[in-house]
Amino acid sequence: MTRILIAEDEERISSFVAKGLESAGYQTVIVDDGADALDTALSGEVDLVLLDVGLPSLDGFEVLRSLRGQGSNLPVIMLTARTSTRDTVDGLDAGANDYVAKPFKFDELLARVRSRLREPVTVGTMTIGHGDVSLDVLARRATVGTREIDLSAREFALAEEFLRHAGQVLSREQLLSRVWGMDFDPSSNVVDVYVRYLRAKVGPGHIVTVRGAGYRWE
């Protein structure tokens, strides 16, 4: 049976979420501390993590960065009362698969859990490139010409999506879904923020804005 780790220090919330998930057929494990959350996530005994940002000892961002830094591809959905774009970007850039702001409706959270669990864990086995930009997907290295550049996990995923569809117009909705695993939110500018980050690193001429449609890699 699928087991879900709930890392949340508010007992009222963790109990509510656990009851709902168990009613939907999942097993749950609850921890209320960041260090315990990291240890449990790395144990190999859970299939997905619901990770609160405001945990004691280690906050959610620290837990997530450590988890990804140790090579874990475990799906992580961050739960937080913080709703600013900066916090959303920080969470996604740290390697979160999704981001849910409190208060949330349980049905929405459950839908996101199911969606993340359906996603296959993929490991790249090839190098892709277009023009002077290339990505070693296995080693997670990016180069422009002969120069290696440092890309965050989310910047790398965005660059990979562009390179795999070079010459095609990709809408913000497509990029938000494919790179962040999120439903389209017309109020979110996270795609535009990351396109700006990526342009600064690979050069502005590679990503063209197609007015009213999205972006195209050239």
Automatic annotation (TrEMBL):
The Response regulatory domain, residue ranges: 3-117
Keyword Transcription (UniProt): yes
DNA-binding recorded as keyword: yes
Residues recorded as bearing 4-aspartylphosphate in the entry: D52
Residue ranges of DNA binding: 123-218
Domain OmpR/PhoB-type positions: 123-218
Pfam families: Response_reg, Trans_reg_C
Example GO molecular function: phosphorelay response regulator activity
Keywords, sorted A to Z: DNA-binding, Phosphoprotein, Transcription, Transcription regulation, Two-component regulatory system
Classification via SUPFAM superfamilies: CheY-like
InterPro entries in the cross-refs: CheY-like_superfamily (IPR011006), OmpR/PhoB-type_DNA-bd (IPR001867), Sig_transdc_resp-reg_receiver (IPR001789), WalR-like (IPR039420), WH-like_DNA-bd_sf (IPR036388)
GO CC list: cytosol; protein-DNA complex
GO terms under biological process: regulation of DNA-templated transcription
PANTHER family linked to this entry: REGULATOR OF RPOS (PTHR48111), TWO-COMPONENT RESPONSE REGULATOR (PTHR48111:SF38)
Protein name: DNA-binding response regulator, OmpR family, contains REC and winged-helix (WHTH) domain
Species per Swiss-Prot/TrEMBL record: Microbacterium enclense
